Structures are given as C-alpha cells and as structure tokens.
Write a sequence for this structure.
C-alpha cells in the first residue's frame, strides 16, 4: 500500500528558502536501519523522527489506530545557505511529524519560514509550545532551539474539530524527547 504525504512536507518544509530540488537520501521502516543523519545533526538524542512520537501517541492524537511509523530522511537544499537535514515520520496517511536541523541560525531560518506563511489564511501564532510556534495550512510548526518540527494530524480535512489540540499533544511528546 503506497503512503501519501500531502505536499505539506516538501513544499512547506522547504522553509520557503529552498531551491526547487530535494534529494531523498534514504527511506526506512522506523527503528530498523540506522538513520541517514546522525543524531548530532539535530543536536538531540533521538535517532529519527519516529523516535519522537510513539505509535500509541499518534493513534491517540488521531482517535483511530495507525500503522507503524515509516521514516524518510532527506537533505533539502537551501538557496544560498547549503542545506537543511529533514526527517519525516508518517503513521499511515493521517499523522505526520517532520523534524528539521535548522543549524546555528535556527531562529532566523524559522523566522523566514514563518514570514513566508504569515499571509496564508488560517495562520496564527501558537503559544506554550517550544520556543515559538504557529499554525498554517492545517499544520503546527514549532521551533525548539535549532530544531524545527511540523506536525499534522488528520491532514486538515475537517474531519477532526480538534486537530490543533491533537497536534499540540504530539508536539509536547516530541519536544520532551529532543
């Protein structure tokens, strides 16, 4: 069964700074193979994005069973600034967590991304999550130190009236493991 990731990950995650290409460096089932990027690239102890949220937490957030997380590692080129390491963990087609190594300029990089989405319908700042956070396009975007997270529960299809509550819950679990 093919997994579908809403274009949120590649388009939005490119942090509004990327060139038009992204190169997949590897794909793996969660916790089987070593991650493409070492944990030190993210400055935390978690090996992969699927280590930040459990399957049970993803299912609870969605309110329905989810399959085991599938992880993809990517290097996203950033025009004029090298690249950003990214990891995506997808639990079926309804729950996605993405982690980005923002580098030493994490605050500025996240700020540029925030600014690029500031005029999008539904944009709003979110307090009490990480160092800074906002929601846009049905996704919770969080910065903690030099790590960025994008969390999407329900794929913003209107089926879940409390998507942001569920996304905040997963963000808290992920941040605790950073």
């Amino acid at each position: 069964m093919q997994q579908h990731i809403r274009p949120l990950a590649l388009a939005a995650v490119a942090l509004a700074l990327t060139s038009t290409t992204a190169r997949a460096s590897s794909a793996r089932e969660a916790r089987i193979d070593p991650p493409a990027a070492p944990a030190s690239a993210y400055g935390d102890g978690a090996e992969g994005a699927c280590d930040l949220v459990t399957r049970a937490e993803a299912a609870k957030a969605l309110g329905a069973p989810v399959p085991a997380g599938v992880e993809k590692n990517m290097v996203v080129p950033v025009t004029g600034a090298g690249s950003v390491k990214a990891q995506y963990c997808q639990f079926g087609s309804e729950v996605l967590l993405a982690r980005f190594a923002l580098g030493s300029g994490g605050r500025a990089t996240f700020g540029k991304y925030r600014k690029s989405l500031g005029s999008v319908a539904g944009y709003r700042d979110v307090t009490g999550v990480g160092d800074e956070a906002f929601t846009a396009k049905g996704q919770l975007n969080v910065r903690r130190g030099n790590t960025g997270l994008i969390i999407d529960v329900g794929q913003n299809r209107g089926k879940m009236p409390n998507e942001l509550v569920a996304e905040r819950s997963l963000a808290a679990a992920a941040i605790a493991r950073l």
The two ends are 31 Å apart (CA to CA). Residues 163-177 form the longest helix (15 residues). The helical segments are 8-13, 55-62, 106-117, 163-177.
